[in-house]
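Comment thread on ticket #2218

A.B. wrote:
> Attaching the input chain for the structure job we discussed in standup.
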Amino acid sequence: MFGNKDIPVYLFTGFLESGKTTCIQEILEEGNFEDGLKTLFLITEEGETEVEEKLLQYNKVTSVVIEDEEELTEEKCVSLVKEYKPARIMIEVNGMWDMVRLVNETIPENWVIVQTFTTVNAETFQMYINNMKPLLMAHFQQSDLVIFNRCRQDMDKPSMRRSVKAINRQAQVLFESEDGSVESNISEELPFDVTAAEIRLEDDDFGLWYLDASEHPDKYEGKTVIFKGEVYRNRSFPPDTFVPARAAMTCCADDIAKIGFICHYTETAELTVGDWVTVRVKVKPEFSRRNQSLYPVLWAEKVEKAEPPVEEVVYFS
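C.D. wrote:
> Ran it. Output below, let me know if you need it in another format.
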């Protein structure tokens, strides 16, 4: 629910010629804003295509072009609301702008982001991953829906999907082919047998298992999983719990974080943070009120000291 002064905001992010304008046009054509309410449309990047003027008028959308990142300040946002009195706001975000600053500092507190769409040109995706990965990952991190368009059959869609899920497990990922057809259920060829009652992960398998178990925790319910991890705990952990974790690089060398699932173990107090262990665990998914979904919880049957893996950092691409 929104307060009396709250204004819902829809963000459309992505690099130039990634399909942002087309996405906005299709949303308007589908009648999502046909409720007679005023919409303020902030355009921070002008590409080759524009939303049809008749469509904007029909949906009571007023466009304002913001040419420079420094021009869009909190004060500017407040003045635009006073001038146009919109019921909601759409922002077509320049792909080179700082998404974190836009979301956390620029837009006013009463501008409530309800949905963020990110469009990606699949043909240039690898180029941006190689040259502008931090910027691209910042878009993924804020997104509710990521749409890869211009997809061909020979493209590595599972790898593209992992790039998104590694940074934002909650985001939905769609693949739009050149003929307009859309895929969402992209199967991942896993290097271990998920049908087995006991799954033994090689050191290099942890990243794929972590993403798959995060998205499909029910798939592993009641399964026994054996893998190697580093003992991690902090003061917020409940008693007799730790995380058999791995360090993961989701963006760049400066963006390495511990990943893993909470593990219940009665002898946790005897473990030393930073030690490597091999764990044999049962997976019992639980419901998360915060995310309104299931998430994996581990129950240790056996924990033994182990040598660190040859490569301690997990990669997802």
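A.B. wrote:
> Thanks. Noting for the ticket: The chain has a mean pLDDT of 91.
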